[in-house]
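Supplementary notes (optional reading)

For those who missed the lab, this is the record we used. Protein: Transposase. Length: 73 residues.
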Amino acid sequence: ALKQRGITARIARKGIERNDQLGQHRWVVERTHAWFAGMGKLRIRFERRIDIHLALLSLACSIICLRMLPGFC
C-alpha cells in the first residue's frame, strides 16, 4: 500500500545497523503521537460514529498546528 502511494518505509530491523537519520524521523512520529495522546477524547476512541471521531481528530490537528504557529512568526 505504501509503494502505491510513493511512500518509502523507514523501519529499523534487528541485526541491521541503525541509521542516524532514521532516529530523526522516528522522533517526529513519536512526538506527534504524544501530542495526539494528550487530547483526552482521542486517547481511547469512545465515539461510535466515524464522522464524530474524524471531526475530533481534525480539531486536534488544528489545535496542534495553532500551538506550533507562534514559533514560526
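If you only remember one thing from this example: The chain is about 55% helix and 0% strand.
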